[in-house]
Amino acid sequence: MWVSAVRSAMFVPSRAAFLAPRASLFTTPPSIAQRVRFSSTNVPEEAEEQPHPTSAGPLPIRYPYFVSRVGVNGMNLPVYTDIRNARSRYLTNIRKVEGDVTALCRDLFEDFGWGDPFNKLNPNAELLVRTTQQAGSKMIVIRGNWSRDVKAWLEERGF
């Protein structure tokens, strides 16, 4: 039944249509196109717009920064431990930061209870080694082996 409906609705172009611009070769009259398109579905005449149901959970928080995941499956966070000076110096690298690096650094230090990282009077400010803000890969380097804590903190925030 469907095949016969399509065959009866087929449009065969005339010789003049071949000489016309190419776009007109594949156009069909609107009435035929509407019949063929909607022949298998029932569309109500007036579809009432209903509001989308909202979940009871809280809305996700938008941060001014983003830390993308890495790896084959995209499941790992780019937080690494760098060991130097014959295992006497540990550095934690947070790579692949997009957006505002200083906001990420401030939020990290506040949640860990270290205070403001950019205030030189703060005794914990020496934990922050450097932040790079080049156009490519932005990175934060922190003194100490904090990789597990930082990964848990990032996962807690939804990254």
Structural domain tally:
2
State Rg: 30 Å
| CATH class category of the largest domain | Alpha Beta
The class by helix and strand makeup works out as alpha+beta
In the CATH hierarchy, the third-tier topology of the largest domain is known as Translation Initiation Factor Eif1
Alpha-carbon distance between the two ends:
53 Å
Q: Which ranges are low-confidence, i.e. pLDDT below 50, for 5 or more consecutive residues?
A: none
| β-strand amount | 15-25%
Assembly category: single chain
Number of helices: 5
SSE series = HHHEEEHEEH
Percent helix among the residues?
Answer: 25-40%
Shape: globular
Mean pLDDT, as a whole number?
A: 77
User: So, the CATH homologous superfamily of the largest domain?
Assistant: SUI1-like domain
The largest sheet, given as strand count, sense and whether it forms a barrel, is:
5 strands, antiparallel
* DSSP strand tally: 5
CATH architectural group of the largest domain: 2-Layer Sandwich
Structure report:
The protein is of the alpha+beta class and 159 residues long. The protein has 5 helices and 5 strands. A hairpin with a 5-residue loop joins strand 4 and strand 5 (138-143).
Q: What is this structure, in a nutshell?
A:
With 159 residues, this protein is of the alpha+beta class. Helices cover 26% and strands 19% of the residues.
How would you describe this structure in keywords?
alpha+beta, 5-stranded antiparallel sheet, mitochondrion, Translation Initiation Factor Eif1, 159 residues, ribonucleoprotein, Ribosomal_mL49, Large ribosomal subunit protein mL49
